Amino acid sequence: MNTLTAVQKQSIIGYDHKSFFIHGKRVFLSSAAIHYFRMPKEEWREVLVKAKLAGMNCVDTYFAWNVHEPNEGEWHFEGDADCGAFLDLCAELGLWVIARPGPFICAEWDFGGFPWWLGKKQGIRFREYNEVYLKYVDLYFDRIAAIVRTRQITSGGSVILVQVENEYGYLGSDEQGRAYLEHLRDGLLSRGIDVPLITCVGGVEGAIEGANFWSGADHHYAQLAQKQPDTPKVVTEFWTGWFEHWGAPAATQKTPQLYEKRMFEIAQAGFSGISHYMFFGGTNFAGYGGRTVGASDIFMVTSYDYDAPLNEYGRTTPKYFTAKRFSYFIRAVEPFLLASEPLDAAGIRVTGGLKVRGRRLQDQTLLFVESAKQERETFHLTMENGKTIPVIVNPGEIVPVLVAVEISEGVRFTCNTSIGCNEIVDGIRTLIVYAKDGQRSLVELEADEEIRMTGERPLLATQGSNGRSLSFDFYHFKEPQRVELAIGGEPLRIIVLSAEEMDRTWRVGEGQWLFGSGDVSLMPGSDGQYRVFASETVGSLPQPPALKSWSSATMELASLQGVSMEQPQDFSSFSQPFGYLLYSSKIEREFEGWTTLILPKLQDTARVYVNGAEAALIREVGSASLKIRLHKGENRLQLLVQNMGRLNFSPYLGEAKGLFETGYLDGSALDLRKGWETAEKTVVHLDQAGHVEGNPVLSRSFRIEGKDRAALVGAIAAPLRINGAEVPLEGYQNWFANQSVDISAFVREGDNLIEMPYVKAPIQRLELLAYRAADAIPAWSMASVDDGRPNADSAGHSGIGAPAWHTCEFASPTLPGAVHAKLKLRLTGMSKGTIWLNGINLGRYWQIGPQEDYKVPMAWLKENNVLVLFDEEGRSPEQVRLLFDEQSGRVWAHKQNFISNELGRSGTDADL
């Protein structure tokens, strides 16, 4: 039992309005968002070490309830779900942890982290003070809090903060959520959580609120400062990239250059912590990819790469080095930065086109200099004391400038570019100064005692007449430069690097640095101990396993034996979490011809078959319609529905998945996007680009003839009125841009009038579906489809057009010990389906982009492996192949020295 007093706990971790204190020292939290459940356990160490090598001192992780309790009462905390082991590894590596147990996590994760079976509970309402909901939340908290409690920093672990819920403020005010959030807060406290509690986007008394954003740092800081003036300001989610969904462009719009600028904006605003969401995104294996608002079919791809600093395979990207440079800079100026106050820059004179912000501590200054020019220029700053400093700034870039900042007692440092190190390395105070290749920098030292050059004198160095100042004009060559000094008998080393060489420089431990190496990681040596390895050279890519001798089997739609019922059931009611369901019905027609099928309640993509032949793939869901041709007599209608992921963010969490109301024949579908009018009779077409000033109310008429049921689906705007009556849209916000509403009670035979405010154009969908209750399809059967293994009723492959399984065996690759390969699957030529490896569901695939390659974890390979593809169209797998990623060609070598030979000093191995 933890017997520490409140005072003792405060001495371990505390805070004021500027920052957190850990063991009495102010800390800037450089946190990497990494989710243990999005990769195999075997990959944890590599990803965490790479985060630490990038200067991260903290890890932020959600805990996914649905991973730990996939079925009610079945708890899993072993293997890849061993979150306690993940926290222990963070502690072993010296990384603090921000624990975010939810219970709601969003995270683009199925159901926002809630287990599928929770949606079956009668009377449940999510993210509210609801007795049914909170009963199960408390049972979850009993389990997860016990794991976190013993790993808090107050109990010898490294968990420093625990989050209450997640982003509640996006859907409701603090007052609306007060009772609910207080229950969660008190539940954590009563279960032994004694480190500070935090929230993000919305708050509760007793918790420190953070902000989630990509841009607008000043705005978010001001909001937090007004709401909680006495707490530290942290960015609980700084969005390094974005998620991707099927059929959308690649989400690669946040460039490394803009990423760097946004981080400097956060620092200049006064934040004392950044959690990079995501630092490593990972993968939505199995059915865990979620769904979000904005359209009816925004379903997450299997990859959660997120365009993050570490990609889905754990490889470094350009953003990784951007984050690394910034975090190294923060560490170098951390004591000054966290003690300083905002600077009034009015007294600093600047040349045109320059914007200056800054922070000051007594006579020490840090400036953030931003250019509004169209090309790189050398600007000049003149400080209040008349000192003029040149600074080179690229368009849109922010450059830090240090002016008389104390780097050690009695030594002040001025520099017009970034620094990457200010610490004792091998017994010597070491500064790293770097700038983009081919640029110059000004470095000045002032000291209370004499400054002497003990090494070779740089060509452009000027000593002050009193011997206590020294100025350098450095050119940043590709080759490192070293300046050796002594100040009052104490040695000082300045290392001058290009930005490229800075990316090859690593802080591998306290006072331990490695220079001149490519990517660095900790990997097991021949004796099983973890040591520093670096990718020194690039060899030829190893040959991936070949996929040959596929065997295929077609799913016989007519032969699947289902369960008979009057109405189709959703996935959860049918007790199936993910995968596929086949819905079948028989329809008698007195004549041959086309009819419009209406499906009022369908929440997933559906492949429709009529008499065994595919008729359509429904993508726009919520409510759907399609034209089908039926012949006279008996017809067989079948829908193969894949659960594409539950909403991970919405007021409508827990939506039924699949088809959960019968279909109706002889309906009608009307596109309502054209022909709207303002009160002034201006015509507005909502399917065309445009803008209408003032967001006026628009109106449009429509007719209903011979129908007694109607649904409105698509980009509805609230308030919505039909024939003068307002249609309830509880929880709906216009930016959701999609809703399906039963408006049967509001329409009438003949002419009708619909009114709603203008929000935006163009919109993707706005349809009126009308039908008769009397035309309902009377009976159905439902069958579960085992998409991971051909069933007994499957036959040999009969070609494209029917779903099929394709199976292939391959041997694991034999790789040299110096090769650290990552394997992926490219599904050229396939349609839509699922991937299985050795009985493990690797996730959904859909060859409409943006995802092309699918991660195959090396940890899940056996000596001999079985790959199964379930393809909805039965397309041939002859073009499918395994590939190693581009960085698999690197050759990794054990590094004996922490400081490379050209810098003249060596250290020791970094065994763990």
TrEMBL record:
One Pfam family in the UniProt entry: BetaGal_ABD_1
Keyword Hydrolase recorded: yes
Give all residue intervals belonging to the Beta-galactosidase galactose-binding domain: 803-864
Please name the GO terms of the biological process aspect recorded for this protein, alphabetically.
Answer: carbohydrate metabolic process
Glycoside hydrolase 35 catalytic domain ranges (all copies): 19-325
Cited SUPFAM superfamilies: (Trans)glycosidases, Galactose-binding domain-like
Domain Beta-galactosidase 1-like first all-beta, first and last residues per copy: 568-670
Q: Which UniProt keywords apply?
A: Glycosidase, Hydrolase
Write out the GO MF terms: hydrolase activity, hydrolyzing O-glycosyl compounds
Q: Out of the domains of life, which is the source?
A: Bacteria
Q: Which family does it belong to?
A: Belongs to the glycosyl hydrolase 35 family.
Official protein name in the record? Beta-galactosidase
**Organism (species):** Paenibacillus nanensis
What does the organism's lineage look like at the top?
A: Bacteria, Bacillati, Bacillota, Bacilli, Bacillales
